[in-house]
Structure formats: structure tokens, C-alpha cells
């Protein structure tokens, strides 16, 4: 090497080392951050729940714990069918209710006789957890376990001995069936149960009884890669979102405080300055209830409902846990299968083409001017790279320039959460007709945020991070032109008997039939409330969009007799009529000076043959006065009453749906609903709607 080359080599060497020394550092962690298990779980995004137990055979929401194991016989049970459907729908795992509140075990537990080993299914030789584990393996799905802490069968429930039993069962489930990705500890506890024949109410302190600290230790020692879900009194890895209706807040921090109580509505939003990473999981069923009820065959969620659920869960920084109630024969119902497959297809279609890929992107600031943190990292498809700014810069923008105008109606953005959730506020602008138009103004992003808006055609798009806890880290961005899905109309019957149909938007037309036939564009067009007589009505209707020539799925509504002649007896308050107005959004509360039991008496104005009644509680977020235990009476003259039913509205607090109860038909002109207990154990009683079922 001559001198010139030597000098050159020296320069190259020193420059290289200078640039290594000056290498731009990645941002520091913004605590708290997700654990490896939480991150892996979040990336699964979408997985299934399956509910099957003895109460599948009694048409109840919860088993009481005294059901005979002999009723459990899912003759056609095929976990491969469940796994095939979930896989085809785009899901990544399945959580099985190995033991629900009834206490009945779907595996042959060594520690109880109350299990499938005493059922006729496979002559007591079967093991559904095993079959599920095998099917998951075959279809490349992960397996999760739901083990109800509340056990309405076990004689020791409420005593310390039960905790040993519970842990023994956990040990069986977390040892014998391979890797488990999630364990679900449901906090529901209605108190009453069979309890080995005691038939009583047992109260436990949910914060101390299960000694969660040691139970968690056991879980983690058996399954190091697991995440724990718990809404029953101790902070776990994942949080309930406060509703089973299928959504989480638009503002959604994956944070809570590790100690102290969170006001329940904060489950929906997380806690902005929380000190623990506890992301939300949206759990909801594909039908109104969790267990199979034949009457819900016509209430499987429609495609627009499921798409809403998708955007309101995965699109809001949560995961989606979607439930299939298994039929008594052991299979997923074909309607549910079709609904979830259509849903999977619609999601795939909506996000098939990311139209941002070919844009040129410029950032307002790039950390240390280092291309490693450049704006391009948001469109390179990798989850590992991200755009970020210098430490002191907590706001900034990314501008995407398109060669030709681009048409889109969805925006997807992801933060790089391994370094914490940072963005507090952002806006989105589109450059249309030579000017910037704001199309969205939002708060948090988190792992994934998807926005829906009216279709725009723009030559540029700008994302502005307007507030963040620390320098923002954006790992992915997408824009999509998702096909519109027409929402079916909603129908209600007013007290007068008139049927009102409400379209989802002002541009679509509605066609309907009243004779049970399928509506077409030749059927009656809806223009004003439909006059009917006082009898029952079967309405079928569709929406039609003349522009796109698309038709919605069918709305089918069955209404019992009209309430035109009904009167609430002995109550002056006119507001009480809102419980008969057919509008599920209005409610009425009994006077707060009354003490339970509290009666509601209605004069039907005519004698009818009644075979059941329906109760809908307050439909608002954390509505109160929800009746949990009731008795029901009928009378022909308003003086001599006959009790025709008594029981519980199981799970009504978490899932405040229409409650339907039936009994053998009897003639009556008066009905009386007696509230025996409410879900808050206080004296408040409220109603959104009351209805009857006639022969
Ligand atoms: C609730 C339970 O009471 C329901 O029956 C269902 O299992 C749901 C997932 O959780 O709290």
C-alpha cells in the first residue's frame, strides 16, 4: 500500500468509526410496555370462543349445577368442524369452556364425578379438551381454556378446600393438553347453586377468596407463554372491556393501574397514565347469548353487525374474541358458519389492497435524520421498523403524495408498541380539489386503529400527530377502498300496534312483506308506519340502494299482540308508559321508596291465552335496576292471582338482552311481574320494555 492509499484507508476507517459512534439511538422505552406474551397475543387479533355445557341441553344461559350428566350427549360432536370454520374465517385460536358455572367438566377430571365421564357421550370415555387440542393442532390454531372459578356444583364452593380443587383442575388442564395461549377466569358469580345438594346462596369475596397471586404463579409455572384474563378481582394480563356487546372505547389506552380499583367505565377506555400494561379484549357472541338456544336461530349477527364489531374492536386497539354457541348435537349451526365465513371474506376483501404503497412519503421530522427512522418505514410492511422523531419532538406529520388521485374510505395506522403506547391525539387530512380537508380528528392509536369515513378521492393524505406522551413511533399505515355493505333496516311495533321501520340511512328504500314471503323489489315499499290489527305480526323487510343497486340482508321481526289496550295498574307516573312504547331506548324506574319484592301489574284490556313473558332491562351503559330474580303471576279478574313461573335471569348484568320465559298456556287478563332481587343487590327496579307471548 503506498502512502496515498494508506492515508485514504485511514480516512475511510475514521469516518466509518465516527458514523458508528454517532449512530442515532432508538427512542427509550416509554413504560409500561407489553410483555412478550402480551405482544404475541395482541398480534393474534382475532380468535374464537366456544360455549358448550349441560345447560346447552336445558336451554338455559347458566347451568345450576344440578343437571344430570346423562343429559349431555353431543352425538355428532366434531371439534374439527369448529377448527375448520375458525381457520377459514381467519381466526388464530379457540378458547373452550372446559368448565362453565355449572361445574360440569368437558374433560374427565380426576377430581370430580361431575364430568363427561358420567355422560352417555362416547360411553363416558370421551375428552372434549383433548379433541379440541388435536383439532387446533391440525388446523394450526392456538388453544385457550375457560375455567369458571364459580362452580355451582361443587359441595366445597365457598370454602378453602375448593381452591385446592380449582388449582388441581387448572394443573390438569395446563399440563395435559400442550401449549395454552390464554386462560379465562370469568368473574361472574350469581351466588345461588346446587353445591352438592345444599341448594343455597354462597357469597365469596372475589378479591381474596381465590388467592389469585398464587393461582397466577401456578399458571405461569405450567405455561410460561400464557396470558391470563380475569375480571374477577385481581389485575391480570388482559382486561374485560365492560360490555359483552362487542365494542371498546374509541379512546383506548392499553393501560390500567396495577393496584386499586378502576371505575368500571374505565375498562372501556383504559387509564391514560396507568402504570400497568393491561390491553382490552372484546368478547362477544355471534348470537345474542353465549349458549345455544334454538329461538336465536333467526338472530345470528348480520354482516353489517359483525363488520361494526370488527371496526369497534380490532379497529380500536383491542382483540376480538367471537363466540360460537355449540348446538346440542355438538356442531356449530350452519347459519353461524355462514355468517362468520362471510364476515372473514368481507374483512379480507376490505383490506386486500393497500393503496398507500406506491405513494411518496415525507415526514416533518426524522429522528437524527437517520433513514432507519424515516417516513418510508410506515409503508414497508414490516412491523419491526417505524418512523419516529427526535426525542424532544412530540408532534409531527407524514404527508403521502400520490401520482394519481386515489379513492379510499378506510385508514389504518399502527404504533410500534414494544416501546409503549404514546399517541394521545391525531388528525387526518386529504388534499381534495387543491385544498386540505380534515377527514378525522381522533385520540389514541395503540397496536392498531382503523378509521371509517365517507369515500374521498385525494392526491395527498396527511397524518398529523397533534399530541403524544413522547416522540411518536408509527410502524404501519394503510388506506383502502372497502366495498360498502348495506345495513338492513330496524323494525319496532308501537303501542298503537303500528309497525315502524327505520332505515340505516336516508338514501335507501325499504321493501317489506307481512305474509312470511321473502321481500323483493316488487313487494310493498315502506313509506309510513304500517297499520295493523291487534294480532301478531310477522314482518320481513330489506333495504335497497338505488345507486349501487345493492340489497341488504333480511330483517325478520316477529311481534306478539299489540299493546293498544294495555294499562299499567296503580301507577300515576305517565313516564311508566315508556315500558310499553316498543322503543328499547327508553326506560322507567319504579319509585325509589319501594322495597323489594316490587310488583308491576298490567291490565291487558282483554283476556288472552298467555304462554310466556319477556323483560328487557335498561339498555344504557351500566344501566341500573336490572332484575335478576323474578316471579310471574296471571289473573283473570285482577284479584285472584296464580303464580305461573319463578326463576333467574342469568348473565343479565353483563349481557342485558331480552329475557324470554315460557310456561304452560293459561287464560289471563292481568299479568304481574314481581322483582325479587336485582343485580346490584339494592332496591332499584327498572324496565326498558315488557311484552307477553300468546298462544
Ligand atoms: C360471562 C358468563 O357469565 C357467560 O355465561 C359467558 O361465559 C361469558 C363469556 O362470560 O360472564
Q: Could you characterize what this model shows?
A:
- By secondary structure, this protein is α+β, with helices and mostly antiparallel strands.
- The chain folds into four domains: 315 residues, TIM Barrel (Alpha-Beta Barrel), CATH 3.20.20.80; 121 residues, Jelly Rolls (Sandwich); 70 residues, Sandwich (Immunoglobulin-like), CATH 2.60.40; 128 residues, Galactose-binding domain-like (Jelly Rolls).
- A seven-stranded parallel β-sheet has the order 7-4-3-2-1-11-10, with helices on both faces. Strands 12, 13, 14, 15, 16, 17 and 18 form a seven-stranded antiparallel β-sheet that branches.
- Beta-L-fucopyranose (FUL) binds next to loops.
- The site of beta-L-fucopyranose (FUL) has 7 residues, from loops.
